[in-house]
């Protein structure tokens, strides 16, 4: 696996804007990111808000597959509540603490 294949497989790319010409996967990712967190049905409802008339059984099935795949890869968080998965794009719950010793980052640099 080269670097590009690795990045495609294990990096979550969130589109900067909604584009009706984009892939279904990117539309689903964008919808979840704009919600922050949500169920498959909430993501599909957001897609309907962004692109009226897009909703279909096929899209709901695709959203279910895409979100589960991203969750299984660890690219998004998820938790089950009342038998329904709630997906979440936030991976960090609290900011990092501590400081960085810049001198240790570049061993050739004077300390």
Low-confidence stretches: none
CATH H level, superfamily name: Winged helix-like DNA-binding domain superfamily/Winged helix DNA-binding domain
CATH topology: Arc Repressor Mutant, subunit A
Rough outline: globular
Mean pLDDT metric: 84
Helices, by number, come to 5
Structural class: mainly alpha
Count of individual domains:
1
CATH architecture: Orthogonal Bundle
Rg, Å, rounded: 18 Å
The biggest beta sheet reads: 3 strands, antiparallel
Describe the structure.
- The chain has 111 residues and is mostly helical.
- It has a single domain (3-92), classed as Orthogonal Bundle (Arc Repressor Mutant, subunit A), CATH 1.10.10.10.
- 46% of the residues lie in helices and 11% in strands.
- It contains five helices and three strands.
- The chain has helices at 3-10, 24-35, 40-50, 57-72, 102-105, and strands spanning 37-38, 77-81, 84-88.
- Strands 1-3-2 form a three-stranded antiparallel sheet.
- β2 and β3 (84-88) form a beta hairpin.
- α2 (24-35) packs across α3 and α3 crosses α4.
- The protein is globular.
- The termini are far apart.
- The relative contact order is 0.13.
- The model has no long low-confidence stretch (mean pLDDT 84).
Can you describe this structure in just a few lines?
This protein is mostly helical.
Give the tags:
single chain; mainly alpha; Arc Repressor Mutant, subunit A; three-stranded antiparallel sheet; 3 strands
What's the layout of helices and strands?
Elements: H1 3-10, H2 24-35, E1 37-38, H3 40-50, H4 57-72, E2 77-81, E3 84-88, H5 102-105
Antiparallel strand pairs: 1-3, 2-3
């Amino acid at each position: 696996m080269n670097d590009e294949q690795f990045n495609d497989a294990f990096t979550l790319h969130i589109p900067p804007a909604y584009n009706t010409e984009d892939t279904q996967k990117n539309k689903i990712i964008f919808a979840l990111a704009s919600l922050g967190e949500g169920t498959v049905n909430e993501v599909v409802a957001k897609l309907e808000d962004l692109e009226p008339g897009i909703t279909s059984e096929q899209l709901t099935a695709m959203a279910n597959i895409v979100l589960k795949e991203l969750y299984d890869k660890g690219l998004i968080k998820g938790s089950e509540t009342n038998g329904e998965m709630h997906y979440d794009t936030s991976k960090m719950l609290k900011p990092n603490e501590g400081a960085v010793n810049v001198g240790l980052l570049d061993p050739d640099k004077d300390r």
